[in-house]
Amino acid sequence: MVISYYGGKNKQSSWIYSMITEDMKKNMKTFTEVFSGAFWVYANEDFSFCDRIIYNDMNSYLTNFFACCKKEEFIEYLKEQHEPGNLLYFDANISEDPKEVYDYNYNKFKEIFIKYRQELYKDTEGKEIKIDIPDIEMAFKYGFMLRHAFSGVPSKKIGFSYSASSYKEGKKVPEPKSQILLRNVVKDKVQNKLQGVSAFECLDFEEHINKYDSPETVFYVDPPYFGTEANYFRGDEHFGREGHQRLANVLKKIKGKFILSYYEFDELHDFYPEDEFHWETKAFTRASTSCVKDETKDKKGYEVLIMNYDPHQEKKEEYQKRATNDDLMKDVVDMDPSDDDFWS
What we know:
The chain is of the alpha/beta class and 344 residues long. It contains 14 helices and seven strands. The protein has three domains: 1-58 and 203-311, Rossmann fold; 61-189, no CATH class; 314-343. It has helices at 13-17, 22-27, 40-44, 60-69, 72-81, 98-122, 136-147, 177-185, 188-195, 205-212, 235-238, 242-251, 268-271, 313-334, and strands at residues 30-33, 52-56, 199-201, 217-221, 257-263, 278-285, 300-307. Strands 3-2-1-4-5-7-6 form a seven-stranded mixed sheet, with helices on both faces.
């Protein structure tokens, strides 16, 4: 919607949304993404059937960023920083030599990135991060840093990515990614979506689920995938390996409906047995495959969706109803009108 973020579901959102049945759209009042991240499912799909949309992520920087994106003062601050003479101004006329223009801007934006990465990640390591949401300046720093983070990975070790395209001699000097951030934030579609969010939460998943659970709530659950916990912001601290079992324990008890995303791993079948939960599987190109250094690894991922309901039940019931009607009609056709039972 506004930024790239590790594990985002931009490409999978329509498939995920297709699991929400027509009956659910009539009866569900609240939608929340428990690990909201870049909020792609809500951003891409139509949730006008819900009265409440809740954003939640344990990354307080990210929650604050999205909470600020809907505020006019943040948009004005962001625009101001891109004006000539200010911090994020892209100076395309610093030299007549395109390579010098590129090098100047590359080094300038990389220096800002390293400064913010040090301040937000390294200097706070092991410390509690407290943000009085909405914090405009903090949102600006984090939005810039995440926009320029390689593959959108929120890690203290992640490298700098200047532009969506590389410099090529004889071509136009590519603009920094922070320009894209500004364009995205001010889009009407983005603002309309953000204005529809009822609350921005920064809660542990168990606390969040318990807070919003009801028979009228749809939870989309996209946790750190097994073995990749450390790639998320404080993933080991906020979730860790034990988080997968804890999440399963919580989801098994809820009153609402959940759609859970994962890549398959052995314990997943123990956590969510196929005879108790509905499974769907589909192949996708893995997100952030550029982070995978081992070229022998399959970049094709098999996304698993697990639900505490059967999304095809309505169609099955309709099919059975039609089949029953067809059988009745066949019986009628086969009957003799002179038979007394024909008219009963």
